[in-house]
Amino acid sequence: MRSIVTVRGGETANIGGNVAIDVLIAEDEPSILESLDFILRRAGWNIESVTDGEAVLDRIRRAPPRVLVLDVMLPKRSGFDVLKQLRSEAQTRDLPVLILTAKGQQQDRRIAEELGADGFVTKPYSNAEVVGAVRQLLGEHDGAA
Description:
alpha/beta; Rossmann fold; five-stranded parallel beta sheet; two-stranded antiparallel ribbon; 5 helices; 37% helix; globular
């Protein structure tokens, strides 16, 4: 786990490895990452982010988040490759994964579903759509955000 993490309210905290992260965002486009970080923090969750496929696997192996928001197009390893790897390992097989893609093609959705994605959001997305999808994967309902 990284030593500095952005937590609820935007403050940063040094962590020793035992603070649970609600949502790990895997996105390499800075403006999209910033937007996702903002809307998910505003909804009340602890957020951490990575910008390539290898970093996703490294971070999750050290301490899994409650949900992974995973872009398909990532450097080093695609989101599909990451998802396939996560589903092949016992400790990450049940990790809820929300796939993000700019493509929006039926083929991407089909591949994501076949690999075991739990949700799928196409860019451009609405803030409410992403928050709702994460809330559903966390098993939360229309509670205070």
